Amino acid sequence: MDSTPLRPARTAEAGLHDLTLSLPDIALTAGVQRPVVSMWRTRHAAGPNPFPAPVVDSAGSPRFRASEVVAWVERTGLGKNIDFAADVAVRGVLDARPGGGRPTDGLLALLCLRAYASAVLADLAPGDVLDLADELDPDDEFLYREVAALGADLPAVCELADLMASAAYSPGRAAEAVLADRYRAGRADLTRSALAPAALDLVARVVEVVAPADVVASPAPGCGDLLHAVLATPDAVDVPTALVPLGEGRRLARRRLVAHGWDVRTLEDGDLPTEAVVVRQVPEVGVGDVSDEEALARVDEVVLSLGPGQRAVVIGPASALVEAASSPAVESARSALLRTHRLRTAVLLPPGLVVGRSRQRLALWVLGDAHPDVAIGDRWTMVADLSDATVNGPTFDRAMLDDLLTDVVASLDSADSVRAHAFRFARFVRLPEVLARGGSLIESGRGLAQVPRDDRGAAAVRVRELAELLDGEGRRPLDVTVRRGAAQPLHEALLGTLADDGRVRRLPGVRLAESMVVPAPERDPALTRVLGPDELLGAVPWGTRAVDRMRLAAEHPGARLTEPGDVVVTTTPRPAAEVDRDGFSAVVYPAWVLRVVDPDGPGDTPRLLSDVVAREIAAQPSGAKRWRSWRVRMLPADQADDVERALRAVADRAAAARRELDRLEELAGALVDGVAVGVVKIVPGEVDDGVSAAGQDEAIE
Fold first, then answer.
1. DSSP characters for 635-662?
2. What whole-number distance in Å separates Cα of residue 352 and Cα of residue 620?
3. pLDDT tens digits, residue range 374-396?
C-alpha cells in the first residue's frame, strides 16, 4: 500500500463538497456519452433546477463540485447509473489521494465493519476499530490484517468508508462501487478473465431456475463476481448463504459478500450441503490463461464434489467445454467427464462476454443427476448454440433467455418430459454417439424426434388453396396436387454434422479483382457468370455480371465453377442463399458454395434437397454467421423427388414474377421521366395493340 497518508475529510458531506469533477468524469460515472452532459448544461442552464455552475475553470476545462452534481442528478433522475453518488465518491476521493494509491482492500474491510456494526467508523478511535475487526474476524480469515495494515491511514479511510456507505445508501452498494473502479484503476489482478454483465446475468438466471436455493457455493470465487450475481436476486426472502473456502485468494470475495450483510460460511472439502448449488468460472477472475486440459480438470473437481440431487453451473472456455478438442489429451479429459452422465445441458455462448477479450467464446455447463431410469447406452445430454445471439447491453434478449431457461429446465426432467417438450435452442445428443464420434459437442447435436402432432389436414388444405390461387388468371399451372398425410417425426441435422459425414461439401469463393468483373451480355461464350453477395441480397439482378473465362483460368487456376444444383451462400452482411440451377458460375468471395454430395445418405435416411437447404439458410437470423451450426430439414425419401419438382416450378414462377416487377418498375420510371420533360403525354382512351414501335408517336399524337 502507498505509505502517503490520506488527507482526512471532515465529514462525509464535506468529503463530497471538497471533490470536483470534470465533464468527462460526470459522463463516465453517469453512464452517458460526453456530449450528453454538455446538452444537460445547455438545456438546464436556467430555470428552477439549473445545472451546477463550475467552481474551477482551468484552461477551458470546467470542474464542478461533486456534492452539487450528485444532488442535481438525483433531483432530475438523469443518467443511467443508479449508483451515481457512490461511484462519484469512489472516483473523486480515490483520485484525490496523493500518489494515486487506492486502499481497496482496507476500504472493503471497513465497509464490512459498517455492515456488521452499523456504526459511524469515523467516530471510533483507531483501537476501537481494530477491536471491532477482531470481533468480526477473530481468526483473521478475511479482513483483520487489511484493517491493521492501514496504520496511520485508518482514520482517513474510516471517513472514506462512511462517506461511501452514506452516498450509496448501504455498505454493500458502496463495495460494488469500489470493485467497479478496478477497470479504471488498471487492477489486472481483479479484471483478468472478468465476465461481462450479460454473462453474469445469464449464470444467475440459470441458477435461479435449476436450483432455486438460498445456499450457493463456489470453490474458486475469484473476486466474487459470480457469487454476487447469483445472490443479489431481488426475489430473495431469507438472507442468502455463500460457501467459500478459506485461503489467500478468497479473502476479497468474502469481504465483498460480508459487506452486503450476507451469511458467509467456510466451504470444507467434501462437505457440500445437500441444498447448495455450485457455481464456478474457469478460470476464475485474477488467474492467468489456463490450458483446455487444466480447465477440464477444474470442472472435474466440481463434478466430484456433487452428491445425489445436487446441481452446478459452470462457465468457461468453449474450446474446452464444447468445441472440437485441440489434442487427444483434451478429448480424453472431456470424454471422462461425459461418462459421469452429469452433464445435462451445454450452451455455446457468443463472443464478447469476457471483458477485454472481445473474440473469446465461452460455454455454459449445467450439471445434475444422471437419469437412473435410463439405460447407460440410451442416456443423453442437451446442447444449445447461442453463438449468434444478441446481447442487449447488460443482458441477453429476455424472450430468447426465457426460452433457453425453459429448455434447460426440461433437460433436467425425465425422458418422457424431454420428448414432449418443444425445444427452441437445445438439441438432443446421445452420449454413446458423442463419445464414439468425438469432436464438437454442439455439432453432434441433432433434432429430437418430436411427438407427431396431427393438424387435421389444415396444412394440406392451405397448400391446395394457394396452388389453385396461383394457377388462375391464365398462368401455366404449377402442377402441385396434395392430399392429407399422417404426421411423422421431423428429421433435421446440423450442416457441420452433414459435412463431417460427407453429405455436403463447402467450397470457398474466389477473390476477384473489381476490374475483372464486367457486365454480362447474354450468351457470350467468352464470359463466365459471376455470383456473389450482391446477387444473393438482390442488389444486382442474377446473371448480369461476368468474368472473362480465359482471364479467370489464367489468374485463378484453382477457381472452381459451380455445378447445377449447388447452393451459393453468403453470411455478409447476413445469411442468404440461392440455388444455382444452371451451374458453371464463378462464385465471388465472401460468398461460397455448399454442394450436396450425397442427397440420399446411408440406408433409408431422409433426403437432403438443395432447395430446402437454401431456404433454411436464408431463414437464419441476421447475426447467425457460424454455418456449421445451421440446422436444415430433410424430407421423406418417397416424397423428395416430387417436392423438388414442385419447388423448382415455384422458383421459376417467382423468377418470372421478379422479371415482371422489374419491367413494371421500369415502365413507371420511364413514364414519369418522359412526362416530366414533356416528351411523353398521356392521352385518355386505349392505344391500338397493333401499333408498332415505329408508329408510337403517331398513336400517341
1. B-HHHHHHHHHHHHHHHHHHHHHHHHHH
2. 21
3. 777 778 888 888 887 878 778 88
Hey, what amino acid is at 426? A
Please calculate the CA angle 331-334-340 and round it to the nearest 5 degrees.
140
312-317/277-281 β-pairing? parallel
In a domain, 621, yes or no: yes
Residue 240 domain-assigned?
yes
Has residue 690 been placed in a domain? no
Q: Are residues 414 and 530 in the same domain?
A: no
Contact 206, 386 (CB under 8 A): no
Sort 638 into a burial class: Cβ within 10 Å, 0-12 / 13-18 / 19+: exposed
Phi, psi angles (nearest 5°) of residue 42: -70, -50
pLDDT of residue 6: 38
Domain edge (last residue) among 601, 617, 635: 635
Question: Domain of 472?
Answer: 453-487
Per the domain annotation, does 43 fall within a domain?
yes
Q: Tell me: do 230 and 372 sit in the same domain.
A: yes
CATH number of the domain that residue 534 is part of: 3.90.220
Across all residues in the chain, what is the average pLDDT? 82
pLDDT at residue 613, rounded to an integer: 92
Q: How many domains does the chain have?
A: 4
Same structural domain, 269 and 344: yes
Residue 10's pLDDT is 38
Decide: 282 and 299 in contact? Cβ < 8 Å: yes
- Respond yes or no on whether the N-terminal peptide bond of residue 138 is cis (omega within 30° of 0): no
Q: How confident is the model at residue 144 (pLDDT cuts 50, 70, 90)?
A: very high
Rounded to 5°, the CA angle 267-287-86 comes to: 80
Which single residue is written with the C-alpha cell 455439432? Answer: 443
Of 635, 664, 686, the one marking the end of a domain is: 635
Q: Please list, in sequence order, all residues whose beta carbon lies within 8 angstroms of the beta carbon of residue 103, skipping any fewer than 6 positions away.
A: 1, 2, 6, 150, 153, 157, 160
In this structure, are 38 and 82 located in the same domain?
yes
34-83 pLDDT per residue, tens: 889 989 998 898 888 899 988 876 566 788 888 889 889 988 889 888 77
Same domain, 416 and 475: no
| CATH code, domain carrying 220 | 3.40.50.150
Q: Note whether 478 and 517 are same-domain residues.
A: no
Percentage of residues in the chain having pLDDT higher than 90: 32
Rounded to two decimals, the pTM is 0.68
Residue 518, beta-bridge partner list? 546
Cell numbers describing residue 680 = 411523353
**483 shares a domain with 335:** no
Q: Tens digits of per-residue pLDDT, 200-238?
A: 999 999 998 888 668 899 999 999 999 999 998 765 546
User: Which candidate, 487, 500, 369, places its Cα nearest to that of 437?
Assistant: 500
Do 423 and 401 lie in a common domain? yes
279-299 average pLDDT score: 91
Asked whether the beta carbons of 106 and 97 are under 8 A apart, the reply is no
Q: What is the DSSP letter of 410?
A: H
CA distance 228 to 493: 39
DSSP output for 473-510: TTPPP-------------EEEEHHHHHHTTSEEEEPPB
